[in-house]
Amino acid sequence: MVSGGNAGTPNAVAAPPEELDGDLFVISPEAPLVAGMADRLRAQGKRVYGPGADGAQLEGSKAWMKELLVDAGVPTARHGAFDDAEQALAFLRTLPPPYVVKTDGLAAGKGVFVTESLIEAEDDVKAKLAGASFGDAGRTVVVEEGLTGPELSMLAVCDGRRAVPLAPSQDFKRIHDGDEGPNTGGMGAYSPVPMVRDELVDVVMDAFVEPTLAALKARGIDYRGTLYAGLMLTPDGPKLLEYNCRFGDPETQVVLPRLRSDLVELLASAADGHLCDDAPRFVDDAAVCVVVATPGYPEAPRTGAVIDGVDDAGASEDATVFCAGVDRDRDGRLVTAGGRVLDVVGFGPTIDAARQRAYAAVQKISFPGMQFRHDIAAAAAKEERHR
User: Fold this and answer.
1) Mean pLDDT per 10-residue interval, the chain, length 387 residues
2) So what's the pLDDT on residue 7?
3) Closest CA to 1 of 343, 250, 341
4) What is the CATH number of the domain that holds 178?
């Protein structure tokens, strides 16, 4: 299956959201949430799933998020937020490698710099605060200690008072195999995660999601929407890397296809402020997503190339191709129009089977300079085979 709406106009909207009629509005991109689209729709009496601008600060400002985490007692890395280069560099030099430097504002998943080199970290701090890297979004930086361990992504549906977890997933942020190269918006993901038991999900909800919701409520913020928790499972226990205020990409592409509960009913109940009593149900089958990107991504994506094979890749019931950074040229051909172009998802009874189907579909797609990781879910598939 090929999904993504009208690929020829990926950013087009038939009419402003305020002029559309609907029973439920689900706002997922971070920029309109941060800009207050949910607030405007709610002011017109519409049923909306997605936090207001106040709650969307969790993603819109990493410094604000870190401040909230401290208030809520949520475990996270040692950190500091700075708009002064000398203060930021002084704090950076107190940390052991690896060094982590983040833009405060929205950066399309590319504002996190991780390095073992103090000199590289110092240069990144200077570039961000000077506005050379991300403009105004980087004029405040968060500097934090590097954490080690496997990553875990948890999506929770929130109604302002309560939250329920969706199935865990694991994503791959670095551009190259073996977690090499710069951070991206995500090069792939898989679900379920073999190492994650129900007990760990309970820990995440009890120690991270629920205290965060309580801290938001204490600030007068009615958070109705998705709370995406990106975690590191460190030797000292789980610690929060970041929150996103919407369904994360590419995790959503492997979590929601496994959902067997009624998604609309779940989101509508959260929008109404009264979550369904029944916990979301998921199939046992696995899903693996491989992101296909343009040459030059993430630093300088080169676009405009004709994409071949998408229909063939999505022809099987065991694979879905989600269109992302695409457009149509004058001849109606599908062309690359962004850094991450396609999300190719395979499904199967095991992670290994889903992985094989995802990569079989990827092999049917081609465009000049196409790049993708070859090791998405490889370790999980190996662990699964040896259980």
Assistant:
1) 46 56 90 93 95 95 93 94 92 93 75 89 89 65 92 96 96 94 93 92 96 97 97 95 93 97 96 92 97 95 96 94 95 95 98 98 97 97 81
2) 38
3) 343
4) 3.30.470.20
Count other C-beta atoms under 10 Å from residue 106's C-beta.
17
Range of the domain at 102: 78-145
| Residue showing tokens 């195999």 | 177
Beta strands 170-171 and 286-293: pairing type? unpaired
pTM: 0.90
- Using DSSP, state whether 187 is helix, strand or coil: coil
Burial zone of 272 (CB within 10 Å; 0-12 exposed, 13-18 middle, 19+ buried) = middle
Instruction: Kindly calculate the radius of gyration of the chain based on its CA atoms and give it in whole angstroms.
Output: 20
**What is the full DSSP assignment across 357-379?**
HHHHHHTT-B-TT-B--S-TTHH
Domain match, 153 and 208 both: yes
* Residue tagged 């999506």 (tokens): 155
The dihedral over CA atoms of 56, 59, 63, 69, expressed in degrees to the nearest 10, equals: 80
Q: CA-CA distance, 287 to 355, in Å (whole number)?
A: 8
- CATH code of 330's domain: 3.90.600.10
Q: In a 10 Å sphere around its CB, with 0-12 CB exposed, 13-18 middle and 19+ buried, how is residue 168 labelled?
A: buried
Q: How far apart are CA 82 and CA 140, in angstroms?
A: 6
The residues near 244 (Cβ < 8 Å, ≥ 6 apart) are 30, 58, 59, 226, 228, 230
CA distance 223 to 271: 9
Distance, in Å, from the CA atom of 296 to the CA atom of 279, rounded to the nearest integer, reads 42
CA-CA distance, 58 to 252, in Å (whole number)? Answer: 19
| Same domain? 313 vs 221 | no
Task: Classify strands 112-115 and 180-183 as parallel, antiparallel or unpaired.
Answer: unpaired
Nearest partner of 185 among 127, 256, 250, judged by Cα = 250
DSSP E strand stretches across the chain: 2-3, 25-26, 48-49, 79-82, 99-103, 112-115, 141-145, 151-159, 163-165, 170-171, 174-176, 180-183, 188-191, 224-234, 237-244, 286-293, 319-323, 326-328, 334-336, 340-348
